[in-house]
């Protein structure tokens, strides 16, 4: 690789990771003011527990993210299975409908969900936020699982049926293991979308029930938020890096095993 390409690559990675490094740096700054550095300290990591409002917002965020990810992954996989078994013309139309929420502006989706939930009388708070996050997560799961499911050899499933396995048991024993990697990828995208969302959450949250993004927004104008938010974001980034690293190692291990088998 020639040096101009290396320079551009280095610049791109700098632009991507520099803000992340700044947040990590501020999380170990002993000063409560961002622009003053007084030494290294881990006090803001301990302050996550001491800041009751922030801690509750983190609990709300993780609760909604985990539950919406589980529900969206199950429903998205089920919808993918149904897509395969409908006629091609209908399947293409359904896939097009599935892509609309993905490319739709968040403000439009948020306003639509607000209107529907108001009409249906859904209580704003945890129920409304959970339903909203499930709604915008399902299309990403379908978009991730569908290509993998389409490439599977369905003759293996039919062979399991011929050998006496019931349809549901054959699906769990034969199809599900091959879909596992795609489902995990879809779940990770859904979890990231949920934990990162602000616009849709802001429209459907109820009084007294805030996630981290709404909690931060409510304090951003007055600059009254605790630096503990930097520590929380740093922990999230570290966990994400560990998960992605673990997935990468697992994929490399599987490829190595396939080579040894061949």
The CATH topology = MetI-like fold
The residue fraction in helices comes out at: over 70%
Average pLDDT reading: 85
CATH class annotation: Mainly Alpha
Write the CATH homologous superfamily.
MetI-like
What would you say this structure looks like, in words?
This protein is 80% helix and 0% strand. It is an all-alpha fold and 262 residues long. It has one domain (55-244): MetI-like fold (Orthogonal Bundle). Helix 1 (3-27) packs across helix 11, helix 2 (43-50) crosses helix 11 and helix 7 (154-162) runs antiparallel to helix 8 (167-196). The protein is globular.
Quick gist of this model?
The protein is an all-alpha fold and 262 residues long. It has helices at 3-27, 43-50, 52-84, 88-103, 106-120, 126-150, 154-162, 167-196, 199-204, 212-220, 228-261.
